[in-house]
Amino acid sequence: MLQVTNIHKKYGSLQVLKGIDLEIGAGEVVSIVGASGAGKSTLLHILGTLDTADSGEVVFDGKNIARMSATEMARFRNRHIGFIFQFHNLLPEFTALENACLPGYLAGRPEKEVQEQAEQLLGMLGLSHRLNHKPSEMSGGEQQRTAVARALINSPKIIFADEPSGNLDSKNAQELHDIFFRLRNEFNQTFVIVTHNEQLAGMADRTLVMKDGQIVSEVTI
Ligand SMILES: Nc1ncnc2c1ncn2[C@@H]1O[C@H](COP(=O)(O)OP(=O)(O)OP(=O)(O)O)[C@@H](O)[C@H]1O
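Structure for ABC transporter ATP-binding protein, as requested:
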């Protein structure tokens, strides 16, 4: 599904990524670990088309994203990629249902279809009783699960998660981790997860260890 070849990235004079090669197959859960500053988030942002590499290739299902125009890339991102960040980034003035629907509306899908799917996803995530709550009226775990529904609304090929449980207590973190693996087991959802959480990293099919801008080892279970 995703092939990455020889990615390099510099910020000013700092060489942050120094030749990353990587392949991710459909239905895989891959975790990326490593010390702070190793380049994990930078790599995730490049894989997720939120940032561009200085050199190297990122190919999604045979499509080289470097050859896409900005508009094509934005459309591709909206349709095929889901994101979950440490801080949920939900819009404070919108309800859980509205937040979950937004990428569906941006994709130009029919309103009713998007709303039905959002209700179904929020229900699956245990949030049927929170559809009309705003983020400030929900717990941290509920907010993050709403962000998961938002990430899933356009049935993405792949979800990129950057420290998804970094802001949750251990019970809510465990629940979120269980949700990821349920989505993988039931829907073959692919995940790439940057995390400092050893439990989450250890649950993945493969763990990539980054150091100073390179993948220095890979652990497969
Ligand atoms: N937009 C930017 N401009 C300049 N330097 C940056 C930028 N983004 C990241 N960096 C630098 O690149 C290096 C790698 O950052 P990155 O966020 O990828 O590391 P990380 O492994 O995800 O770290 P952490 O675990 O702390 O999140 C760091 O030294 C960081 O300061």
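The domain at 2-220 is CATH 3.40.50.300 (Rossmann fold).
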